[in-house]
């Protein structure tokens, strides 16, 4: 039956008649294999809206119907007549106003039959076809894109360029006119999120009360505290504000802000207003700052940090003029928490850490400068989980590179990558559609020559440690695959190198085949030219990542998922980027001076951030902990005194000899038991409103009481014994024990006095004295008179 949808333009359909085709075996149902079958488009079937394929084989005169996707995918792109046909990425229908007539050829892994092994003749270093790289047409200006006025703004009063000013110049800009700094923009997002927590969750900040709100200078101090925290071993907030131990305290942070302010800002870290007001309220009625959210097309995992990520990338690329050679890599941010990256419908994304894809400069004075950084959102990453228009199958890495390298297309850049990205399809698309030279390691199953390389290794045409090479070149395409026998087999694929071997082109420590140990000295060895370019370039991005790893920032917010971690990582990358620019500008404008080491630059940056704006403290922070400590006893405590009801009591050794004023003992009840008792008492009090300070017996082991009475006028002290001490009791006040956090023993029983049993009621006497009970009326019984005599 004829399709009911829009009909393909008959004029355009007939224009494809005569198109040469190369169709693999697996296109036919029930067939497998990659052997290509030559054919031609014979005619167009108007009813089926498909094209008839006629094979060149003499034994097969059948015609096979192909839809437009198959025609554009398997068109012979190497045919001499391919330029006579227009192959848009989608079929053109009747009534289409806009027609994309670009070449719609799709790429896939090439078959092994299209590759030829290159054998070098004796005495020659090259063979096969010569492949010319795409010409470099990029900017040949200064590496740093900065004006004279901006350079002057980076200098101090002595005319010297300061790192902390370069760092802020490299930070992202926000707003339509790019007139908002990172600190101003983030302060607005944090104010909105704090307001949301107050309105919707009933949360109450400790520092920001009344008219006090988060200001841009406060955010700068927050970042300064994160840097200081990183340098001091990533201590907790309680440790950084410690007043008793010098090895925990961080005095610059204590002087910069109160502890409550740091806790409030840490709990309100946010980078997007990705929520709606409750009920029917308008945003402006509830929040003081305008709403800022990511664009509608943003991938789900980037909603919270996408704006921040994009602005960092734009600023980093604006600040420099990249050189020709760049390198791409993937790294991991350790740890994972509840967020849109780790929860949601199956299949689950990566849980061991966020994968970060980066692009950096790898040649020139700005080597290891980051140009691009993007977080992978797992299998369901909406930006990558699409069918790229240049590929037959869903190649995620091609989709990733399509927008990662957008700023570097058609300039002749040389991009170095590893096996996670490289393939036949990637190399062809990079050269034919993006104008990019590509080289990198490649897995054997991602190129048609991989099968040939495996066979050569199995036949021992090249062995490990020989530093010999196998080279395979595609018959018609600009593709070269090599297998190099280093300390392991290194397989590389390039779309701009010719089959050339450099004699003595690299220095390596050879491995002794008998002892399996490497030599101490380097030896000149032969290698393919594309292997040399890869080895001289790719390690530079690892060095840059290593330099950044020394100063990785960490946050203490586990509730927000990945956004604070990623924001800290981008801030960390900016440290290295700013230092690269600082070194270049400093050497250019101060050639006789020595550049300050990175660690000292970071010290100055921290002080600059922590001292930004007006003071945040409403009263002094107090003296820092003493540099010395009394270690003669484990019970001595320096600094601010500890309240007796504080849950954080100092450690007291059970064998320590306490001198001076003794500390308040820690409760005998553990925290959980005390909580259970308080809950039970509250329940009993609700059912018995009159229940107040009841004397209750406590279960003890044996027949002896467990503790002495706590009443200072206990009649046990008046028995005439040589050592005065109160009676032992098995009764404790229910409410007083809960208030004091320990069993509060009070006598409420009979005792023998001169052979007679008398009532001892310290429980009532104590509470009357504390005005918790009303004094009893005068009594005349013998027992009462005895009570009066013994308990006053």
Automatic annotation (TrEMBL):
Composition skew (Polar residues), residue ranges: 647-666
Matching Pfam families: DDE_Tnp_1_7 (PF13843)
Domain PiggyBac transposable element-derived protein: 234-579
Region annotation Disordered: where it falls in the sequence: 615-669
Taxonomic superkingdom: Eukaryota
PANTHER family noted in UniProt: PIGGYBAC TRANSPOSABLE ELEMENT-DERIVED PROTEIN 4
The protein's name in its UniProt record: PiggyBac transposable element-derived protein domain-containing protein
Organism this protein belongs to: Fragilariopsis cylindrus CCMP1102
